[in-house]
Each structure stands twice: as C-alpha cells, then as structure tokens.
C-alpha cells in the first residue's frame, strides 16, 4: 500500500501542527482508514514534502504533526496547457492528466466551436489536487478562469512559444521537436471537438510565437491530444529529457 | 458537422447493399438523425472506406447503399498494447485511447497486482469500434481475452520488442527512442495501479526481448501512461514519423 499524500494550504515545518478540515478528515480517517499515529506525506506547493503523522482524529476535523522533510520543493517546467472545455468527464480527465504530465498552468479557453459557457473551477481544482497527490508532485497547477482564446492571444507574452495541435496536419510527420526550445517557456493549445474555426486558424497562422504541429495520422479526441502533446513537449523541452 | 462514420461487418463494394442491425439503426436514425438519402462513411477493416447513403430507414433496421470508395484499406503499425485492467471507466478510456493512438492489438493482462478477474470484452470492443469511427481509422483493433501476463510471456515471439513502463525509472531521462526499431513489431506493457510485483520485475528484467523505460519524473495513472507510451512508440517507431 502506497503512502497517503495530502495537499494542504497550511505552512509545513519541523514540529508544525496542521489542522484538517472536514473533507480532509473524511478522506484520511473515513476513506484511507488512518488512525492516531498513522503515517502520511504532506505538501503545500511551497515547503516541499513532509512526513507527518496523525495526532488527533475526528469526524469533522483533526490534527497532523509534521515530522521531517522528505523532499525539497519542486516545480514543473514553465509549461501551460490551453484547452477548450469539452464534456464534463473529459474536461476532468484533461485537468487530471495535465497535472500528472507536469503542466504549470491550466487555462480553459473559449474558442469559436467551444460549447461550454463556463467551467466549474472549484471542481477542476479538486481534480488537479487529487492528481498532484497521486502522481508525487509537490505542487498543484494553477487553474485559470475560462477566457476567450482571442483575448488570451491579444495579451500573449511573445517569448512563450505556443504550440497548437492542428488537425489539418494529420498525417504529416511529427514536427514537434523542431518547434520547441529546451528550458524555454512554452504552451500547448488543444482545440475543441470540431477543431478551430477558419478565423482562428487564420489568426494562429499569422502569429510569430505560434506553430502548428501534427499529432499523427488520426483525429484524436481532445483529452487524448492533450496527453500526447504534453508528452512530446516534456520529451523535447521539459522534464522528461 | 463532420460526416458520420460507421463500422460494419458486411462486405463493402460498388452497388453493395448493407443491412443495418437494431443498434446501428438507432444510432444513425435516432441519434445522428440521418434520413433517406443521408450521407455517411462505412468501413469494415477489409475493404477501405466507402461513401454510402441511407436507402431505407426503420426502427429496428434499415439498409445503406454503398456508392464509392473514398479511402483505401489502411492498417495500423504492428503495435500491441498490453494493459492490466483497472477501474471500469479507466479501462474503457485505455481501449478508446489505444485505438486512437493506432495500436493493432489490445491485450488485457492479469498481473500480480491486478484487481480485475475478468473483463467485459463485448463492452470494450464497442468502445474500440466507437473510437475507430471517430478517429478516422479504417480498422478496429483486435481485443484479446484476459490472460495472465506470465503465460503471455511464456509464448512470446522474441522478434517483437516489449517495452514496459517502469515506475522505478521515474526521473531517468527518456530512453524510449533507443529501445525501439522503426517498422519492427512492438508492444507496450502498462502495469496496474500499484505497479509490477517484485517477481514480475525480476522476470521482465531477464527477458532479452523486453526493455524498461521511463515515463518522466511523476507516477502516471495507467490510462495516462498508456497514451504517453503509445505516443513515444508512434513517434520513434510507428506512423507518427
């Protein structure tokens, strides 16, 4: 049985006492069956990972005691994922997978063919937290509000290379490696089912900081495309090198 | 609106009439709202892709008329995915994603830490069919019955290179490309949540035809690992080159 990992907002440090909220208490004591003295790992995105033990249990709360740091604070590569929200479960999966794959910021974007009018940011954030706990990260990616793609492009910092998955390039040999620079800021953009509109394609094509890439000869669903594109980015420019 | 694509078992050819079963009739006429004369694409894994139109509609059946071939019969690279079945939805996702990613055979394997005793092969096959229809393939991958990993390894054709995702290599630089040969038969093995047992690791390590690879510094869920590993295989040895 793997050690339980828990994301908390509280500061972590030697001898630090960490209070639990109701959800955390339910998860640790109800679901994971930890009792007094039970071991776990804590992280908060700032202080590294800490070994801790259960000091007090309760139905609506409890307290953990921080024992020793077991990993320094890490950080994902400077990689953003821009994605058009799709159906609920698939959007949840995109957030989960992007967290495992080590994206630093997750930005839901409204495109011409996006159906979603809004995203449940709290729900998606919870998926990101759970994925971070599971995959061994010491951070949780930052989740943005839904913004129109056009507005995001208007204010784009041009030093950040934007790679967009282009369905029209289906079948072109993979050209990802030539488009990214190891260690440099990057972003990957995945369109909705139905792809980008002609107007969006026209604009993306004129942008010096953006490049279209092929994701093989088949048309991938948005969640598959997100994992595949993040894999290639991490391989060529990120922390899989 | 993209053209509807439908997988059928029936032979396809010029002037060929194709009968529909109840499920297909419900999908085409009920869900996709096609009426008489409506256009669609058919494939059966043997005769390429054909443009067809609705000849007769009905609640429990109907008939399509094959008009003209629009794509030759394709084939995925000689790539197998071996995966330990996990929870229901995630297993469905593995099958869907492996189809989009272009695996030719999908083999559920029983490992020491696999929880599933059986898999619903008809259910998984339906997911593979739907994914093939959606991604533009002209074939559907072959889905095997659940077999013990040890038995599969006993009868392994040693010319097929087996790449296994090794959690113990988390953080090692990506070494996938060095382990595969473009155009040669290959297979990717993804373990269950909890990884491989010490006995399985020991055996895999002794096999000349098998090689462990790293999938980055984080622990990926089985479905994420499947997409990432298939991406790397297709990039280095398959039809993404």
Q: What does this entry look like structurally?
A:
The structure is a homodimer of 241-residue chains. Chain A has 241 residues and is α/β, with parallel strands linked by helices. Chain A has 2 domains: 5-71, Ribosomal Protein L25, Chain P (Beta Barrel); 79-237, SPOUT methyltransferase, trefoil knot domain (Alpha/beta knot). In chain A, 29% of the residues lie in helices and 25% in strands. Chain A contains 6 helices and 12 strands. The first copy, chain A, has helices at 22-31, 88-100, 121-135, 149-154, 198-206, 222-237; strands at 5-7, 17-20, 39-43, 49-57, 62-71, 79-83, 105-110, 142-143, 147-148, 161-165, 186-190, 210-213. In chain A, the strands form 2 sheets. In chain A, strands 6, 7, 8, 9, 10, 11 and 12 form a 7-stranded parallel beta sheet that branches. Chain A has a 5-stranded mixed beta sheet with strand order 1-3-4-5-2. In chain A, helix 2 (88-100) runs parallel beside helix 6. The longest helix of chain A is centred in the C-terminal third of the chain and has 16 residues, at 222-237. The two termini of chain A are 30 Å apart. The mean pLDDT of chain A is 94. The interface between A and B is medium-sized, with 35 and 35 residues.
The CATH superfamily of the largest domain in chain A appears as: SPOUT methyltransferase, trefoil knot domain
Quickly count the domains of chain A: 2
Level-1 CATH class name of the largest domain in chain A? Alpha Beta
The greatest interface between two protein chains, and residues involved on each side, is: A-B, 35 and 35 residues
Rg from alpha-carbon coordinates of chain A: 20 Å
Low-confidence stretches of chain A: none
User: Which assembly state applies to the chains in this document?
Assistant: homodimer
Question: What coarse outline of chain A follows from CA principal-axis ratios?
Answer: elongated
> How many beta-strand elements of chain A?
12
Kindly state the percentage of residues in helix of chain A: 25-40%
